[in-house]
Write a structure and sequence with these properties.
about 60% helix
C-alpha cells in the first residue's frame, strides 16, 4: 500500500489537521483522529519523547565553548560529546519509520541527510538507508544520483571523507538508463543493487504501459496524445522525459531495461543468495537486527532488507516481478 498522503484513517486530502504531538500524521477531522489513535498512539508517544530528548542534547552541544554544529561539520563523530545526540537522532528516525506517511518518511530522510552532512564518514550507517527513502517518496532521480555518487566515491580510495573542501553529493541527473557495470563488482553493496533494481523495474513497467497505450495515441492529435501519455508513467524520470513520452515505440528500451534488470538480479543472487527469497517472505527476517555481519551471510541480507523492504512493498507489482523471475530460474 502506498504511503498515506492525506487522512491516516480515510485518505481524504481535504481540511487536514496535523497531529500536534508527532507532527507527521494528518486527519480530516477530530473523529478520524480518535478512531486512528489505537494504531498511532505508541509511535506518537515515542516520537514526542525522543524529539524532546533530541532538543535537550542539541542545546547541550550548542552551549559548549566550541559549538560542534559550527566547527565540526563533516567530522562530528570525532567530538565525543556529540555521540549521544547522534544516537538519539537515529532512534527518533527509527521510530518515525513506524509511521507510514509521506511526512514521516520525509522527516526521516531529512534526519539522515543531515546526519551524513555532520558526519561524512557515516559512523551511524545511514548512507545505505537514504536511497530507499527517496524511492518511497517517488524521487527516483534523486535516489539514483545519490547511489551513483556513493558508489563512485566509496570505491575511490583517494577520496578523503573528512575533507569538506571536496565535492559532496554533486552528481545530478545521472543517466538511469546507463550500464550497470559500476554496481556489479567483487564486493557489491546490497542496498545499491536492491534500489537500482527496483528503480529499473519501475521504469520497465512504465515503458510497457506506454507501449500498450501506443495504439490509442495513434488515433489522437499529437499534442493530445503526448498529454495523455504523460499521465501514464509513475516514475518522474519518464514523466519528465519528453523524448520518451513522444516516442511511438519503446521496444528497444524495454529490451535494454529487461537485460539490465537481469544483470542486477544475477549480481544480487551471487553476492547474497538469501536476499531475493527473503524479499518474498520478509516478515521473519525483519524481526532480527544484527549488529554485525559477514559478506554473503543471512545477517548481511537482514540488515539491507530492513532498509529497503517498504520501498518494494509500496511499488505495485515489483515483488511479484521478482517472484516470477525466481520461479523461472528454478
Amino acid at each position: 500500500m502506498p504511503l498515506a498522503l492525506g487522512c491516516c484513517h480515510c485518505r481524504s486530502t481535504k481540511n487536514l489537521l496535523r497531529c500536534a504531538a508527532c507532527k507527521v500524521t494528518l486527519y480530516c477531522c477530530r473523529e478520524h483522529q480518535v478512531l486512528h489513535r489505537e494504531k498511532h498512539a505508541l509511535s506518537c508517544k515515542y516520537v514526542k519523547q525522543l524529539s524532546r530528548e533530541l532538543q535537550v542534547e542539541e542545546q547541550k552541544l550548542k552551549s559548549l565553548p566550541v559549538n560542534p554544529f559550527e566547527n565540526n561539520v563533516g567530522s562530528f563523530w570525532a567530538v565525543l560529546s556529540t555521540r549521544e545526540y547522534m544516537r538519539v537522532r537515529h532512534q527518533l528516525a527509527d521510530v518515525l519509520l513506524n509511521i507510514r506517511t509521506v511526512d514521516a518518511v520525509q522527516s526521516v530522510l531529512d534526519h539522515y541527510r543531515d546526519m551524513l552532512r555532520l558526519c561524512r564518514d557515516d559512523n551511524m550507517c545511514v548512507r545505505d538507508l537514504i536511497p530507499p527513502l527517496y524511492l518511497r517518496l517517488g524521487r527516483d532521480q534523486d535516489a539514483y544520483d545519490f547511489i551513483k555518487w556513493c558508489e563512485t566515491k566509496v570505491r575511490d580510495s583517494a577520496y578523503d571523507w573528512m575533507d569538506n573542501s571536496l565535492p559532496y553529493l554533486d552528481v545530478v541527473d545521472a543517466d538511469v538508463f546507463e550500464s550497470t557495470d559500476y554496481l556489479r563488482n567483487d564486493l557489491p553493496n546490497l542496498s545499491s543493487l536492491a534500489c537500482v533494481t527496483l528503480l529499473k523495474i519501475r521504469l520497465l513497467f512504465d515503458l510497457r504501459s506506454l507501449n500498450k497505450a501506443a495504439f490509442v495515441s495513434t488515433k489522437l492529435p499529437r499534442e493530445l496524445s503526448d498529454t495523455v501519455k504523460a499521465f501514464i508513467p509513475s516514475s518522474e524520470i519518464i514523466r519528465k522525459n519528453n523524448a520518451i513520452i513522444s516516442d511511438a515505440d519503446h521496444t528497444s528500451r524495454i529490451r535494454n531495461m529487461s537485460r539490465q534488470i537481469d544483470e542486477l538480479f544475477n549480481a544480487m543472487a551471487q553476492a547474497n543468495y538469501h536476499f531475493w527469497p527473503a524479499l518474498l517472505n520478509p516478515r521473519e527476517h525483519l524481526k532480527d537486527e544484527p549488529d554485525t555481519f559477514t559478506t554473503g551471510s543471512m545477517e548481511e541480507m537482514q540488515v539491507h532488507l530492513r532498509g529497503c523492504i517498504h520501498s518494494w512493498i509500496e511499488t505495485p507489482g515489483a515483488i511479484c516481478f521478482i517472484e516470477t523471475k525466481i520461479a523461472r530460474k528454478t
